[in-house]
Amino acid sequence: MPLSYVNPTSDSPWGTYLTQVDRVIPYLGPLARWVETLKRPKRTLIVDVPIEMDDGRIAHYEGYRVQHSLTRGPGKGGVRYHPDVTLEEVMALSAWMSIKNAAVNLPFGGAKGGIRVDPKQLSLNELEKLTRRYTSEIGIIIGPQQDIPAPDVNTDAQIMAWMMDTYSMNTGATATGVVTGKPIHLGGSLGRVKATGRGVFVTGREAARRIHLEIIGAKVAVQGFGNVGSSAAELFGQAGAIIVAAQDHTGSIFNARGFDLSLLVPHVKATGGVAGFAGAEAMDNESFWDVDCQIMIPAALENQITAARANRLKARLVLEGANGPTGSAADDILADRGILVVPDVICNAGGVTVSYFEWVQDFSSFFWTEDEINMRLDKIMVGALRKIWDTADQHQITLRTATFAVACERILAARQSRGLYP
Q1: What is the pLDDT of residues 258-296, one digit of tens each?
Q2: From CA 224, how far away is CA 221, in angstroms rounded?
Q3: Mind listing the domains of the chain with CATH numbers?
Q4: What distance in Å separates the CA atoms of residue 82 and residue 381, rounded to the nearest whole number?
Q5: Which of 112, 129, 182, 219 is catalytic?
Q6: What CA–CA distances, in Å, run from 351 to 175, 207, 273?
Q7: What does the pLDDT average to over 401-416?
Q8: 112 tagged catalytic
Q9: pLDDT > 60? residue 2
Q10: What is the enclosing helix (H) or strand (E) of 68?
Q11: Are the CB atoms for 233 and 220 separated by under 8 Å?
Q12: Taking each helix axis from N to C terminus, what angle separates 87-103 and 13-24, rounded to the nearest 10 degrees?
């Protein structure tokens, strides 16, 4: 049964996650007796975040930190600042982090955080106050061996630096390992900024090879052109693909001959979005889902590929750069249509994998080169996907169900071995 304070619908984030878990129960064997532990977050914290605004007003914001599972290690997951953040969304994101970390076999559990706020409406001073107050409020449950936040939607290295400093000041010792995604000069890792996008590319390259899709000349559409979408687009472009469509919160653009990414990426950084790019024509947002392409990369927010859009999609391969971009009904439609989906819980795991590298480097105070980071990342991502693909072939199930089967088995085996205390 769902938690009393959440009433999920089938296509809500938490409802989608519960459906995904239910689908793997037949493949869990004796471990299925523990499956209810996957349907209940271990710990949910709701905090009030009051700050003094620049004009002297006292404003209150609602913040969350959810630890879904700590069975396999400390919680790990990002913090997002967005006006639409809800407890249910953060619960689902924390659960997907549990699955993601287990799928890649990292020694982490799953956690996620967020504040319901539009950070674009805050000054830099107000943003710092918000971050520091939130960190102080959740400081009772985070720590290098407890729960390690990271950047997510609308948060970045500077916000991680404020979080690390606040936690360190409150505990009386510098604790670089309390967050990942920090600036390099504060213990951050090389390769972290583009790691999620690189993971999308690496898993996409492996999937394309398996379905005999030639990347050279393949048309690619990207939804969301932040760190994940733009990094993935650049890597596919370097591999010979043609990026023909892009969409973000500012609008949608199209060029059948492909974008010049050396111009589009600086345009997005300068203007805040893809709209107005001179090397493309504007298109209706809904028409983006009708674009003729071989590869679709949803790298924005959840629930973007609806059942209606799934019926219209022309791609052969969907690479989920975002968390939860495809609803359960849409997932079934894509499977029926023979469109391969590389699910978020493996496709975008490059970010948390390099976060793991950062965490390890902080503990040892020994740092790797970017080439070493990328080599280790590629090896882990390819190995994880091959394990999942073998599971999918064995049971004749989708990659998503196979990913959940592999991850849930690892989490529940750990739960069974640890037992219940007291």
Answers
A1: 999 999 999 999 999 999 999 999 999 999 999 999 999
A2: 10
A3: 41-175 (3.40.50.10860), 195-347 (3.40.50.720)
A4: 29
A5: 112
A6: 21, 19, 22
A7: 97
A8: yes
A9: no
A10: strand 58-69
A11: yes
A12: 40
